[in-house]
Amino acid sequence: MVDMNVEIGGVRLANPVMPASGTFADGLDKAVDFERLGAMVIKTITRELRVGNALPRVCETPEGMLNSIGIPSKGMPYFHEETLPTYTRYSTPLVVSISAPTVDGFASLADEVSLPGVAAIEANISCPNLEEDGKAFANEAASAERATAAIRRRTSLPLWVKLSPNVTDIAEIARAVEAAGADALVVANTFLAMAVDIESQRPRLGSVTGGLSGPAIRPIVLRMTWQCARAVDVPIIGCGGIATAEDAIEYMLAGASAVQVGTVTFVHPTAMISVLEGIESYCLRRGYERVTDLVGALSVEEADETDMEWVDPLR
Amino acid sequence: MKSPDPGAEPHHATAYSIAAAEFDCEVIENEAVNAEYMHIVATADPLATSVAAGQFFHMLCPKDGPNGPFFRRPMSVYKADPKAGTVAFLYKVTGSGTRALATLAPGDRLDLFGPLGVGFALEPDWRRIVVVGRGVGLATLAPLAELAAANGMGVTAVLSARSPAVMISGERFRAVGADVIEVTDAGGTSGPARLERVLRGLIADGMADAFFTCGSNRLLLLLQRLGREFGIPGQVALEQQMACGLGMCFCCVREFRVDGGVAHRRVCWDGPVFDLQEAISW
Ligand SMILES: Cc1cc2nc3c(=O)[nH]c(=O)nc-3n(C[C@H](O)[C@H](O)[C@H](O)COP(=O)(O)OP(=O)(O)OC[C@H]3O[C@@H](n4cnc5c(N)ncnc54)[C@H](O)[C@@H]3O)c2cc1C
Ligand SMILES: Cc1cc2nc3c(=O)[nH]c(=O)nc-3n(C[C@H](O)[C@H](O)[C@H](O)COP(=O)(O)O)c2cc1C
Ligand code: FES
């Protein structure tokens, strides 16, 4: 038996595998037993009523997809009356992802969702900051820090902050968010991207640009996970292109304490379960008693810095 | 709740199998039925063959290259045979996914996820129904005709196609005792005015307690108009691009007319079968 328990910023999880926000909903219970998941991370909610973006909202790309779903939101009454009871039926910890256009909006929404049955808040700060220049909070250390600090003051729940990969130096943002009181970091959201249909000569997404996700992004987000793990002490949840147990183990060796599986669930609905089972059998095969022994176990022989400079402009 | 209302509750909450699973099936047959359509049959276990008329499977098409299909492709079930342990689909080769699907040979594997979605619902007091379909939409309507016949309902099937050579399923409908009316563009019989006369005739003869349709915007509009005029209920099976097929990603939302407002619903989860009058043509 492998001890699969992990502790992520104040939340004890029975195992390190959970869904990524926006790629999970109650419908998946047709194929997956939610009691087996480490946590349930639900689609980002906002206070505003929103219908979401123009169609088409998704398109395929090599080993991945673009989405511009937006955050269709049915508002807070729906969250209290429908969403929450749907998930509190399970004993698996519920993580509520929130987003807001202002720092105060983040803070008050965090306060409002700090309810019995909610195990942690995941702050999705990859959304435009309408009070400043409209750039995502996650894009700059200062605004990421302000949003995190404001949420921190209004909730005593464990706070996970989800970073954006659309930045030059993700470790800098990670440090700022940690300093502002985040209990864990999720690395990362989607990459801003686009695709064109050369026959119609139109963008493939109704909103022209969207977020790239899926196996195509895995090596980049893995690198970011590693950089963040070296920069901060709080646990990191790796998220980007994980399809198999091998992928998840890669992330854990690079420093992730847990993983989120997103896009691949659309293709293989039971992917989270096979990831979970595969991590356990890897631990058995390699003689690990605890899954936490994998975290950061990567052995690196430091390369000669000057030799590597040309491949590594970001470090 | 009115607009915005992304994903209101489905209009008819019929209970379908609460489970869905990913099946590793064996292809038994994959052949062209005419110049445009292919018929694929695969082995299936009892959960898969419990699929109801109008429900669909999400199919993993083989990779046809580095850019090869990443998403699954939704296909409504054409025939489920619990005794033989098979499910069959009728499909049109339109793009990369269906092109790759067409390369499968007997003995190859096919990954199916399902059964998914809300299918057709028959009211017990309907005696005679009219199904009107075009092109590959007829594949979706064939199991409905079978279900209606099994429930003792009379079925009139108006089948529309570009030409007799690409007309499908006539036999399937006749086999369940349906009255089949075939109309084609080539024969000049499928035009809206002509179809409307045919349908008005069926209504006058008391053959239309309900309408069912799939596959054509024009047919949807016509049936909505006649349905409103004569107070005839109906259902339509809609198509929309899908990623997850399980109501999780919200890429398949469409607008519906509900209680004087506009509601947003997920085709994969609240449908693909919807109330005829609530659907908004595309
Ligand atoms: C519920 C449902 C049932 C269906 N049943 C059948 C059936 O029985 N027989 C049949 O031939 N076709 C059916 N379709 C349509 C079928 O899913 C598309 O023809 C198929 O996805 C095309 O994929 P492609 O890769 O060949 O085309 P491409 O054009 O290369 O596909 C590109 C993308 O667009 C999507 N797409 C393209 N056309 C459609 C469409 N009409 N509907 C939904 N998504 C589309 C694809 O899934 C893919 O994501 C059904 C669609 C739905 C939603
Ligand atoms: C359709 C879709 C919707 C998403 N919605 C959200 C969301 O609401 N909030 C959020 O924080 N991330 C959202 N994401 C991003 C994922 O949670 C995840 O960070 C990203 O997809 C990378 O992981 P993956 O490659 O495993 O999918 C969404 C992703 C997809 C594909
Ligand atoms: S395909 Fe994902 S919600 Fe319908």
Question: Can you give a write-up of this model?
Answer:
The complex is a heterodimer of chains A (315) and B (282). Chain A starts with 5 loop residues before the first strand and ends in a 7-residue tail after the last helix. Chain A is built from 9 helices and 16 strands. Chain A is globular. Chain A has one domain (6-311): Aldolase class I (TIM Barrel, Alpha-Beta Barrel). Chain A has 315 residues and is an alpha/beta fold. An 8-stranded parallel beta sheet of chain A has the order 3-16-15-10-9-8-7-4. Chain A has a 4-stranded antiparallel beta sheet with strand order 5-6-14-11, with no helix packed on it. A two-stranded antiparallel ribbon of chain A has the order 1-2. Chain A has helices at 75-88, 103-112, 141-154, 170-179, 218-231, 245-253, 264-267, 271-286, 305-308, and strands spanning 6-8, 11-13, 17-19, 40-45, 58-61, 64-67, 94-98, 120-124, 159-163, 184-187, 191-194, 196-197, 202-203, 209-213, 236-239, 258-261. Chain B has a 7-stranded antiparallel beta sheet. Chain B folds into 2 domains: 6-116, Translation factors (Elongation Factor Tu (Ef-tu), domain 3), CATH 2.40.30; 128-275, Rossmann fold (3-Layer(aba) Sandwich). In chain B, α5 (192-204) packs parallel to α6 (217-230). With 282 residues, chain B is of the alpha/beta class. Residues 1-14 of chain B have low confidence and may be disordered. Chain A binds chain B through residues 22-28, 30-31, 43, 49-52, 55-58, 60-65, 67, 69, 72-74, 214, 265-270, and chain B through 1, 3-7, 18-22, 60, 66-67, 69-72, 113, 116, 241, 243-251, 253, 264, 269. The site of FE2/S2 (inorganic) cluster has 13 residues of chain B, from loops.
